[in-house]
Amino acid sequence: MKFYGYVVRLLGCFLLLFGTWNPAGYSYVAWLSQDDGTRLSLKVVVGVALFVVYVVYLRIAWLALGVLGVGISAAILLTGYMVLRHYGVFDEQAPFWTGYLMLTIASVTLASGLCWAHFKRRVLGTSQVIYPPP
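and the corresponding structure tokens:
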């Protein structure tokens, strides 16, 4: 997999997570919370589509990384965020940026899970690297 493939997967994860919820209020959750009583069937269809994409993405990431990989990936990203906050790059009292950064960390972790199987296949030279759990 080339760098372009990782960027495409990363953008897909960003769109999925930021499209579901974001602090700005332009998301599926904000659209769903508008109690106008219209377009209910469209809201249900979009919700089911988001659910299916989440199930597929999370299943692939979980099988590729496992518990340890997800934990390590999230720990690396969270400690990087904490270091940046400690050195004053991000304001400690700014929940606006905290929401965006947590979504970014989750997106990068999910994209890492989606790309890990391709990376592992190249390194090990095997044809199958994701084994379903027993």
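(Above: one complete record from the training split.) The helical segments are 3-20, 28-33, 40-86, 95-124.
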